[in-house]
């Protein structure tokens, strides 16, 4: 059974940093595109960024404009993990963050409907 697990969430002051990690059991994350999404309080879930499989464009990653320059997605193959590094955090980044995969695609997408497997989410709270 495929299980994705996010970790690394927490409370941070504005301007601070956090690193979320998405790990998996029962599959190699390197083989598939992985998406990161978030759901802020009272809002719909939205895409944050995604990363290609390592076989597609050397695993290139993209993030949305609202987090560009602050968020970075990368892989740690040795740990079978995909990380979301977040710096210069703002109160509006407060949300539950999810990683997702469909176990098929190797190309990056922020279309939620494509993803079949989701983690349970990691709470990120940016507040002073």
Task: Tell me what you see in this structure.
- The strands form two sheets. Strands 2, 4, 5, 6, 9, 10 and 11 form a seven-stranded mixed β-sheet that branches.
- The protein is mainly β.
- The mean pLDDT is 94.
- Helices cover 0% and strands 45% of the residues.
- It has strands at residues 3-7, 10-12, 18-25, 34-39, 46-51, 61-63, 71-76, 81-86, 95-101, 117-118, 122-126.
How many β-strand stretches?
Answer: 11
Q: Tell me what portion of residues adopts beta-strand conformation.
A: 35-45%
Q: Poorly predicted ranges (pLDDT <50, ≥5 residues)?
A: none
Secondary-structure-derived class: mainly beta
Which radius of gyration do the C-alpha atoms yield? 14 Å
Whole-number mean pLDDT: 94
Please report the number of helical segments: 0
Question: Which of globular, elongated, flat, extended, rod-shaped describes the shape?
Answer: globular
Biggest β-sheet, characterized?
A: 7 strands, mixed
DSSP helix fraction: under 10%
- End-to-end separation: 40 Å
The H-and-E topology, N to C, reads as EEEEEEEEEEE
């Amino acid at each position: 059974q495929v299980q994705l697990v996010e970790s690394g969430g927490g409370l941070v002051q504005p301007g601070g940093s956090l690193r979320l990690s998405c790990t998996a059991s029962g599959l190699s994350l390197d083989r598939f595109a992985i998406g990161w999404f978030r759901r802020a309080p009272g809002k719909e879930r939205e895409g944050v960024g995604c990363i290609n499989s390592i076989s597609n464009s050397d695993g290139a990653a993209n993030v949305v404009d609202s987090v560009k320059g602050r968020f970075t997605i990368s892989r740690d193959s040795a740990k079978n993990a995909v990380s979301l590094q977040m710096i210069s955090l703002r109160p509006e980044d407060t949300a539950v963050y999810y990683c997702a995969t469909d176990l098929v695609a190797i190309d990056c997408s922020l279309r939620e409907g494509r993803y079949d497997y989701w983690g349970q989410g990691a709470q990120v709270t940016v507040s002073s």
